[in-house]
Every structure is written in C-alpha cells, then in structure tokens.
Design brief:
Helices cover 32% and strands 22% of the residues. By secondary structure, it is α/β, with parallel strands linked by helices. Residues 569-647 form the AMP-binding enzyme C-terminal domain.
C-alpha cells in the first residue's frame, strides 16, 4: 500500500513535539524551521493541559492507532465493536467489500451476521451501565424560558411507548416511516422508536416543501408519516400539518397513499383546534402514544439490516435516498464522536444541526447517545430573539462541546464552559477559523473541522483535539480506518503536496451501502468516475506536511449554510414557472451562508423582466424545494452561453456571477460569444 506508507511518512516527518507544546512561535522555529512561517501555514498547538487529558494525546499515539486501523481494519474495528452489545456476535469475516466497478457489483459489509439493535445500545445499555438518571436530552424551545429535559430512563420510556404504538399499527421490521418534525424531543424519540422495532426511518427536514415531501413519500412509500402541527421559527409560525396534507394529497394522486399520519401537538406553536384534520387518517400523538406501555422488546436485527434512508441532493435528477445499515454505522458514529470531540462523561454537548440532515442523525442522535452523552436540542433559529441566543444556550446548559456550521456568529457571554469546538458543512476559511478560535473559544478550545458527507455516515477527515497542531482552515488528517486519496483527472493517485479530486480507498464501517431502490445510480455516481475508489465530489489539496484542505464541490452541488442543494433541482423548479424558458444555476461566495444561489434565467419570448416576476420565480423554488433553496439573485439572461453542441458553459456563468470578469478565460468555443457581454451588461440591472 504505497499511498498509506507515504502518507504515514509524511506525518512522521512532521516530527511534532510531544504534547502540550506551549508557545507557537518558538516551536515553529524549533520543529519546522522558518519554512512554515507564512500565514496559511500557521500552526496552532493544543495547550498542555488539554493534551494531557486528551484521549489521543500526541501524534505518536494517533499514528499508532491509525496504522493499526489501516493494516488490520478487521482487528481494529472488532475490538471497538466488542464494547457494544450484540445479541449474537458477527461471523468469522468482519468485513468484505468490492469498490471496483470493473470487478463486479459494488458491495460493502461490516459485521455481517452480527445481531444487535442501535436503540438498545443508545438507551438500555447506558441505563444498565448506571446512566439511567443522567440527562440524555436537554430541550431548549424557540422562546427563551421554554425548555425541558429527559433522563436516559425517561427517554427509553418515551421511545418504548411510541415503538409499541407503531407495532400496534402494523409497522414491522423493514417498513419505512417518514418523520417530518422540527427539533423537538419527539424527533429523536421517533428515530429511536423506529430503530427499536427494526423499521427504517427517513427523516425529512421540516423546511422542505410539500412537493419535496411528496417526492420522498412516493420514493420510499412509508407505512406512516410522523409530524407535528406547527413550529415557531423565531417569530414565524410554520404550519407543518398543512404542508404534510398537501404532500400526502399529491402522493395519493401519484398512487401512493399513506393511511396514518401521527401528529404531535406542538402547543407552543399552535393549538389542536386550529389544526386542519383528516378524519380516519390523522391521529394526535398525545391522545394515543402515552397510553402504551413504557417497555417494549427490542427487534434484533442483522448488522447489515437497513437503519435509515436520508435523501440528499445530487448534481442531476431527483434526490437520492442514501441508505445506511445498522452495525457499521453504529460503531462508526460512536467512535468518531468520541475521538473527534475528545468526549468525556462530564461533557455537555450541543450540535446546532437539525436532525433532518445527516449531522443531526450521526451527531445529535446516534453518536452522542451511544456514548451516554448529555445532548442539547434547540428548536429555534440561532438569532432569535437576538444574536446572543446561541451563547445564552451555551451558558445556560454549561455546554462544553459546541458543534456548528462555520456560518454562525456573535460575541457576548462568557462561554467559559466550552472546551472543544466543531465545525462542519463547508470549508472554513482561515480568518473565520481564527475568529471561531479566538473569540468563541477564547483561544483555548481546539477546533474539530470535520469533513464528511451524508454518504460517509461519519467524520472522514478531522482533527483529534489534543493530538497535533492545527492549521486554521485545514481539516487535517484522516480518521482511523479512512484512506483518503487525491487523484488527478485520469484517476491516478497523486502523492505528496498536491491537489485534485478527493476519493477514498477501501471501505469504512459508516459508509452508505446503496441508494434506495437504485443501486445502479449508486455505482455510477460514486464509483465509476475513478474505478476502485469512492469519489466524494469534493476537491482537496494536501500540503507538504500532509494536512488536507477541502476546496469545495467539483460537481454541480451548492452548499448553502451547510445544506446541500443540487443546481439541477433549482433549475427544474425555475423552469416549471410558465414564464421561464431556461435557467442555469451556479453557486457564489456568500458572506453569511458560505455559498449563495445565483440563477441565470431566460424568459419566454415576449415576457418582460419585472420585480414581480423575479419574486414569483423565487417563490416557485421556495414552494418546490423549500425556503432554504431560494435563489439569492436572479440574473436576467436573454440567452445563455453555450457551446456549439448546446452545452451551457457554467464556468463562464460562475465567473460572471462572482464578477471575476477578467478571468472569463477562453470564450471562443461559444456558439455566440456576444452573449457574454450581454450578460455582463445586465449584471446589476
Ligand atoms: O462539500 C463538502 C461539504 O459538505 C458536503 C457534504 O454535504 P452533506 O452530505 O449535506 O453533509 C453535510 C454535513 C456533513 C461535502 O461534500 N463539507 C462538509 N464538511 C466540510 C465540507 N467542506 C469542507 N470542510 C468541511 N469540514
């Protein structure tokens, strides 16, 4: 394994000092000479006290563990898996895989034959270990002062009641359940209840529109939909039940009817009486669920039985149902959580992500609960009632580990409790990194800049706080068992200091196993571009010290505030507008959201461009996808730059969108180069 060896050489050659290295400037001179003195190579060392208490306290310790995880993955992961509860141990073979399309069907298996249950490991096992009275969830409502909490024992009781209800309604192992809920405790409760009975949950972010929800219902045909009547986001009421009604009406017209819609009354947002109701189909959660017994036998499942589906956007076509199975995902989320956040029993953990995204699956629900952690759930938006809210929450619960997207702001409040910070969803630039480090973390908390994806299940490239010096803006090194490779256009691995396409060689336990109902698309999208590797869709460079720097998507996917949106989806929403003839969407840098959505729109002939039309174009995207996908800018385009074969040249559109007009490059291959000048002249109109 040439690459791994050279990678290890890289890290070894860093000769990072023993833990707790003190003053950066002196050290830099000592260890690395002056060659690293430039800004982007600034090293930030963990403090001595931090390293002393860290789970992985030195580069040497990391290297030792990493080496073993690569050389003996079966041994490494089965040692860890043995710490979990298995009703029956996995078979002789810990893992098997084929990641090479030229050698047959892509397949990944971990712990096959092992029988377990992730809900049991999250709850029952922790209670057995003496954590029954420990708080599992602190819930902070949208309105300051509205809150609640559940201990592990109470959470188990709630989960069991819902699990019993589901069973009673005929939901069985392998059935799908759609969960369309905001960040209230019932969301993780519903996920865990499904897992307990072996049902496959598919959480749909409650910011998605009726159309998007309908699409997912039609794709995965759930036995039941779990929702609530409404939610407050800041001062706005969102009538979720209305959205569900519209979605289910549409799916029934598409031939998929859902017979049961369990609806939680989210009293603080809307009363029962104000909620639209479909008799026979809708049931109030509060009327039925609490009547069920508070214990429920576990459905034991195979490690390779599906745990959940989560839809995510691709560069083309309809959303993809990313499928994760039970055993590998369980071991992987628990282990990544523990090491990347240097988790200790006394920690209070808050992740600002919504359970509607993968971050909320792996690092609000499963990863932390598997570790017996106390988790803060927040219903509202970060700036309500004002921009100090996040830090008020940190102070109120004495949060020690704070995991968020780099687009969250603000100062004020002591934040003394914090000890580890995490960042996810998009590249964090060095100045944002320094701000997060200096201001939020008082220059004392290491930052785990975690690179991963819905598909990867858990962290792939991430710092292990305390283990080695950080470089602001770099996700640093791979997690145990992960072999990132950077390849060129032709799929050749490039070594040393380089940049290219980020792929992964060999499987890891948390990898997704297929796209629901479309294994062929799974193979084409992820394994055909570079045979033998999983292709992430991201660009990445590696510096001479072996640190990884993510450079963003190389496909047509935009990352808005850490939410992944396919340009094709936004385009198809726009062209569904009767007055839109054609649309091309690109991402642009956005101060607050990381990336913003920039849409070039060609109108049907004879239709004049107007402010009203602009608004209705934006509205059509909000209605078809969700508010978070609304374009930030509509740029009127009498025509689009196309090659002679009719392909839209997005490269040029990206440059126009970001006003890098002197970097347009060669436009001579365009069918009509004058289109470019025309677009530029309309840029700010
Ligand atoms: O482009 C990368 C970016 O987010 C994408 C994955 O999006 P999603 O599946 O929605 O999951 C988001 C939460 C894991 C990646 O392809 N991304 C995620 N984390 C980082 C990142 N880019 C740079 N640095 C990160 N830490």
């Amino acid at each position: 394994n040439i690459h791994t060896k050279s990678y290890l050489r890289h890290v070894e050659s860093m000769k990072i000092l023993p833990s707790g290295a003190g003053q950066i400037s002196e050290l830099k001179a000592v260890i690395l000479g002056d060659s690293l003195a430039s800004e982007e190579n600034d090293l930030v060392f963990p403090s001595q006290p931090f390293s002393n208490q860290a789970l992985v306290s030195s580069p040497q310790k990391y290297l030792e563990m990493y080496k073993r995880s690569i050389e003996d993955p079966a041994g490494f992961w089965s040692d860890i898996a043995s710490e979990f509860y298995w009703e029956k141990k996995w078979g002789q073979q810990v893992n098997s895989e084929n990641l090479d399309v030229t050698k047959g069907k892509i397949s990944i298996e971990w712990f096959k034959g092992g029988i377990t249950n992730i809900c049991y490991n999250c709850l029952d096992a922790n209670i057995k270990a003496g954590n029954g009275d420990k708080v599992a969830l602190h819930w902070e409502g949208n309105e300051p002062g509205v809150d609640g909490s559940l201990t592990y024992r109470q959470l188990l009781e709630r989960v069991c009641q819902l699990a019993n209800f589901l069973k009673d309604k005929g939901v069985k192992k392998g059935d799908t359940v759609i969960i369309y809920l905001p960040m209230i405790m019932e969301l993780p409760i519903a996920m865990l209840a499904c897992a307990r009975i072996g049902a496959v949950h598919s959480v749909v972010f409650a910011g998605y529109s009726a159309e998007s929800l309908n699409q997912r219902v039609v794709d995965c045909k759930p036995k039941i939909v779990i929702t609530c009547n409404a939610v407050m986001r800041g001062k706005k009421i969102i009538d979720l039940k209305n959205i569900v009604d519209a979605a289910l009406l549409e799916s029934s017209q598409n031939g998929i009817s859902v017979d049961l819609c369990l609806t939680f009354e989210n009293e603080s947002a809307m009363k029962k009486e104000a909620t639209k109701w479909q008799k026979g189909r809708d049931i109030w959660w509060q009327d039925v669920v609490p009547k069920y017994p508070t214990t429920c036998d576990v459905e034991w499942v195979d490690a390779e039985d599906p745990l959940f589906l989560l839809y995510t956007s691709g560069s083309t076509g309809k959303p993809k149902g990313v499928l994760h199975t039970t055993g590998g995902y369980m071991i992987y989320t628990a282990t990544t959580f523990k090491y990347a956040f240097d988790y200790k029993d006394s920690d209070i953990y808050w992740c600002t992500a919504d359970c509607g995204w993968i971050t909320g699956h792996s690092y609000v629900t499963y990863g932390p609960l598997l570790n017996g952690a106390t988790v803060v759930l927040y219903e509202g938006v970060p700036n309500y009632p004002d921009s100090g809210r996040c830090w008020e929450i940190v102070d109120k619960y004495n949060v020690t580990i704070f995991y968020t997207a780099p687009t969250l702001y603000v100062t004020r409040h002591s934040r003394k409790s914090l000890r580890v910070l995490g960042s996810v969803g998009e590249p964090i630039n060095p100045s944002a990194w320094r701000w997060f480090y200096n201001v939020v973390g008082d220059s004392r908390c290491p930052i785990s800049d975690t690179w991963w994806q819905t598909e990867t299940g858990g962290f792939m490239i991430t710092p292990l706080p305390g283990a080695w010096p950080q470089k602001p803006g770099s996700a640093t090194f791979p997690f145990f068992g992960v072999q990132p490779v950077i390849v060129d256009e032709k799929g050749n691995e490039i070594d040393g200091e380089c940049s290219g396409y980020l792929c992964v060689k060999s499987s890891w336990p948390g990898a997704f196993r297929t796209l629901y109902g479309d294994h062929e698309r799974y193979e084409t999208t992820y394994f055909k571009a570079f045979a033998g590797y999983y292709f992430s869709g991201d660009g990445c460079s590696r510096d001479k010290d072996g640190y990884h720097w993510l450079t963003g998507r190389v496909d047509d996917v935009i990352n808005v505030s850490g939410h992944r949106i396919g340009t094709a989806e936004v385009e198809s929403a726009l062209v569904s507008h009767p007055q839109c003839a054609e649309a091309a969407v690109v991402g642009v840098e956005h101060e607050v959201k990381g990336q913003g959505i920039y849409a070039f729109v060609t109108l049907v002939e004879g239709v004049p461009y107007s402010e009203d039309l602009r608004k209705s174009l934006v509205l059509v995207v909000r209605n078809q996808i969700g508010a978070f996908a609304a374009p930030d800018k509509i740029h009127w385009a009498p025509s689009l730059p196309k090659t002679r074969s009719g392909k839209i040249m997005r490269r040029i559109l990206r440059k126009i969108a970001s006003r890098q007009l002197d970097e347009l490059g060669d436009i001579s291959t365009l069918a009509d180069p004058s289109v470019v000048d025309q677009l530029i002249s309309l840029a700010d109109s």
